[in-house]
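#dry-run=false #mode=assembly
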Amino acid sequence: MATAIELEALERRFGERPALTGVSVSVEAGATLAVFGANGAGKTTLLRVLATLLRPHAGRARVLGAELPDEAWKARGKVGYLGHDPLLYRELSGRENLRFHARLHGVTRARVEELLGAVGMSARAEDPVRELSRGMVQRLAAARTVLHDPPLLLLDEPRAGLDPGAASALEPLIGRASGRTRVLVTHDLERGLAESDVALGLRAGVQAFVGKADLEQVRELYSR
Amino acid sequence: MRPSTVATVLTILRKDLLIELRVRESVPAMALFSVTVFVLFHFGLDRDSLEGELASGVIWVTLLLAAVIAVNRLFVVEREQGGIDGLLLAPIDRTAVFVAKSTALLLYLVLLELVAVPAFTVLLLGPGIGGALPELIAVLALANVGIAAVGTLVAALAAETRARDLIVPLLLLPLLVPVVIAGASASEPLLSAGGGAEDLGKWLGLLALYDMTFVLISIAVFDYLLED
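#status=ok
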């Protein structure tokens, strides 16, 4: 099986402050990497490096065959990023937002309608995003994430704000059932472990463990 | 399939104009600001009408200060609503972002001038502007291109900083000094009673050179500004 993500001694700093130090992990195509760590551990920074939004400062990062940062352009368009921000314009409707992103990715309008239906937002597709509930915005953000059918999903608390029904509806798109390679950041430790093939623990930006992990190991990351 | 650069420019431009049409944050503020400044000059100078050098200086300084408002707002929606990440994640030519943003700014400037120039004529200008209108439009058009290019560059740079409202005028206005000099010098005879288009070609040439220089610089460095 091909390797989708390969990190070796990855480092990233913000000014003088190290945000990630010595992170090494390998993820096979179609597998799920769960990333655990307390607030400020570097989880979001790792996702943004993998998404090519931040440049690695040292070490090696290879994403879908592209060496970062030099070949970042090769990875763009193959990554679906669902972060804290939904990346949706508040003054535009859900449909207008998805059509905007569809045009940027060269995706058809039919795909937009298909996804609006899949996330249960067809009836509210004309409403401005600012008028939607958090859960509805998250559903639209999930639709935006998979709009271009990316082989790699980078998911930062993807179920935040979702009711159980909405969370189930998104499973075929961003869950294990999607068959995509996934990097999943979650504070739902049990579920995260159950969904993952590989677990990565971060403590203050430093790799605490990688590989198979048990619940005790993960809980230890959050102890002060 | 990767969209063409032209298609990307039109997509981003359409989105920006749609948002401006809904929130009306830039153009109405610029127009209102310029009319307010003309009224202030009217009372501050204690003169019923201006012409020549003074009229030219007043209108150009007012237009540039009004442009600061739009430049300040140009990337706000991208930074505050995460739109910039959406653009950076897409497989697009990033020059398209520059072209779309600067075209949006150019359109805002044209709309501003459609309000500000008639308002200036009514509130402050002594001699009529009618005969010199084609020349004045040429000067404004060339100046707009330069302001849009430099403004987009500064807006992208300042959007990353917390002190955006301070950084934009501090960076933008010094860079636009050549536009003020050329624009005001070219307009001075056009705003004078019985004035002709003295040295107009020279000043238009200077503005065109400024435009070319800053459009090329902006395209060359814009990609780096968007990187973290």
